[in-house]
Amino acid sequence: MSDTTTRLLDGGEGVLNNVFSPYADYFIDMNSQRNSFIATQPVGIYESQIKHYICQEYFNHEQKGLWEKIPQFIAPIQGLENIGDFITVDYQGRVPMIVSKVDNERCAVFENVCPHRGARIESHTEGCKKAFVCPYHSWSFSHQGHLIAARWREAFPEIPEQYCSLHSIRAQQRFSMLWQIPNDPKPDFSLDNWFAAIEDQMSAIGFEQHQLLNSRERMVQANWKLLIENFIEYYHVQSLHQKSLAPTLNGQLHSLDSFAQHGRILTPLKNLAKVRQQTPHKIRREMVATYLLFPNIIIGVQPYHVFVSFYHPVSANQTCSKTFNFIHNGDEKIKEVCQLDVEYLAEALEEDYEAIEQVQKNLEISSAQSLLYGEAESLISQLHHNLAAILHPNGREKNRHE
Ligand code: FES
Ligand SMILES: [Fe+2]
Fold it and tell me: Which residues line ligand 1 (CB under 6 A)?
């Protein structure tokens, strides 16, 4: 490898190089044979029950049987560099949170709720503070969550311990993101085990070498599973995105792979063969990887940016989507190109959201009972099997909910 190549790979062009490189040749080979082979084992067809997308009782069952048991995404933390830096995190239906950089190594997560009488403590979305002061009666708390002072202190003959600190939320850091740990986690659901099968690939993305460009939130009027299903199949791209994404792609050539409960779609872009031949260190700019971090995070490695989309279920027919767009620190000199890459994808994303909202409406009034998935949609059947393994570990609730 020449010095120049080594230098370039230190920047955004090195992201996931070890994953993309072997597939580049495979895709070029397939394309030259005009083959759109999908690299999955034959799995047959799969059907899912429509009531799982529209029934509030099933949604409540998922709350208890799924979300309360597994690690849950909180937020990326690239922006929290100095002690006292903080962000606030709000997802409808989940307790409001403050993420605070408490020492050089660690961010802590607190409920953004005053222990005195329940007011919201911090109203800014980000900043740097040594103390959070509650706007209601001015109690103040350190960036480590401890009560500093209660105004008119002599009016309280005592302040029991549970009122002397912000309620902390159990969280751990992985891939430069914070994850909420369940109160009573099963060993399988420890963060180490949860991500074991995909750890190497997430690490190869190098989130710690990325900076947050922007984030976008959109409430989608659809069940969270319809959204995730959309992003883990490539089958719709040539149809739904025929004017937006399809012209930059290599037909419907792609590869589906799973890593324990997580999934991945790799797709070659149009100029892959040319780039592979002329500037092989740049193949990362001509391939796209889309990951499912089971069950509700989609990570996209796009040519000039990486995004993390979090789909937070609000009700049976409502999901809060939040997309964080990152660029590699090594790509800072081409930031404008990266910004265009983000905007380009945002338009296609809106096509997805509109189509899915239409699907949700139809499912709610249709007389159909189930939906059908083929082998190009095999990651979806795996998603459902993996969900069922957690929701119905003994198959006992089969009759009630399936
Ligand atoms: S509710 Fe915060 S100081 Fe009273
Ligand atoms: Fe799409």
Answer: 114, 116-119, 134, 136-137, 139
